[in-house]
Amino acid sequence: MIVEMRDICKSFGANEVLRHVNFSLKGGEICALLGENGAGKSTLMNILGGVLPADSGEILLNGSTVTFETPAESLGAGIAFIHQELNLINDLPIYENMFIGRELVGRNGLLDADRMRHETQLVFDRMGLDLDPKTMVRDLDASYKQIVEISRALLMKVSLIIMDEPTSSLTEPEIDRVFEMIRTLRDQGVGIVFISHKLKEVMQICDRYTILRDGNMVAEGNVSDVTTDDLARFMVGHDIRTSALQRERNISREVLRTEHLTDEKSFRDISFSVGAGEILGVTGLLGDGRTELFQAIFGAGSEYSGQVYFEGRPVKLRNTTQALDYGIGYLPRNRKENGILKDMNILENGTIVSWPLISKMGFINRKKQNQEFDEQVKSLRIKMENKSDPISSLSGGNQQKVVLAKWLCTQPKLLILDNPTQGVDVGAKEEIYDIILKLAQNDVAIVVLSSESQEIVRVCDRTLVMYHGALHGELKGTAMNEHNIMRLATGTSLN
Ligand SMILES: Nc1ncnc2c1ncn2[C@@H]1O[C@H](COP(=O)(O)OP(=O)(O)OP(=O)(O)O)[C@@H](O)[C@H]1O
Ligand SMILES: [Mg+2]
Q: Yes or no: is domain 254-489 CATH 3.40.50.300?
């Protein structure tokens, strides 16, 4: 199959998002669609996927013009779309989610649950996944949901798959497995559009690239002809820093210490500490328990035994308001599920936790709220039209920056950041790293939870590596490299 999008234009109000964009893809080819946050990648694919109408331009399949008014029509033409924001139904088991809209029916006219389970199991087996198809989607964490979405597209017999940041919450071994399956599909003649901010993955898996900048197509070619630095430069229009970040830090008094933290299921016997001005990494693979551990510490997770000390005093946080009173900020992973209030606008989403700090006697100091948020918008370069627009009008990466901004406005003593750069483009990533470093220089203790070992090595002073709920090792200095992190994360010891 050959897909061509010709001369596509799209505006939202006065915001011209796509300007005369051409994009094409052949079966048997993996094409990266790249660009900064807000460049128009998801919008372009939403048009191909029948989610949004274009203002002008045309789509051709094998040379004939088509129009997709709904996602179902696009799917009917053989195009599957894995969305950036997950799209599963929580109240159904995995296998039913895998077959939504094209359920298998048995001879008796009833749903053929056995066959749906079986076919789901076959895909999971191929992916080497230990996941029961009967599990309710509600009980899965976001990484597994992402895997289910990918598996669902793999199960459909389609000729083109659009993957909008499919790996943003996966770890390296899972990514490798997904890639293996993508390559198999390519070899069977399926065309794949791969949207990602992880340029290393693009080099690994893609044959071609197309780059959007501010709604214009600015470059395309073969991946084998370029480096990640080239791609980054095409995206942002200038060179991106790749040198090491400043390491000298003045780590003073202890801010957080834990002793033997254990819950019943996700983590056990966790003891560590982090000091003012220190950036501590915590990493591991899927199921390592780090997210659950810090949720529990922050008072938003499960019950645990053991003791947490904050500034030397034993504490047990019961809820997030209490955590805020102490000066503890926590950016949860997966903004769609935990970070964003859909019914509120951009400004409200970007400031809501700091309301106690900017309000006096119950009144919100609007001027201060606006000022502080404007500063964050500038320093994080959040791309938006008006602060009063709904948060959902922002591109994925820009939503992430808004959620981060709200924690930066709180002036915390301890900041826990879970997957802080998820879905953020290469340039903005560096800006976020600079902000983390600046906070550390101002004596904030920072914990960065991340599954990207590159990120850990780049920003952290020291890292803990977890494996199946236990601390499996600690690395710093030159020993804190990607190789050692991966060894510890997979349960291997270093010598
Ligand atoms: N429903 C909408 N209403 C108004 N504006 C929108 C809407 N959807 C997208 N936009 C705007 O269109 C522009 C492009 O957004 P898009 O989601 O295509 O970016 P993207 O390249 O996918 O970015 P990211 O890497 O952050 O996901 C942004 O300026 C965004 O604010
Ligand atoms: Mg997007």
A: yes
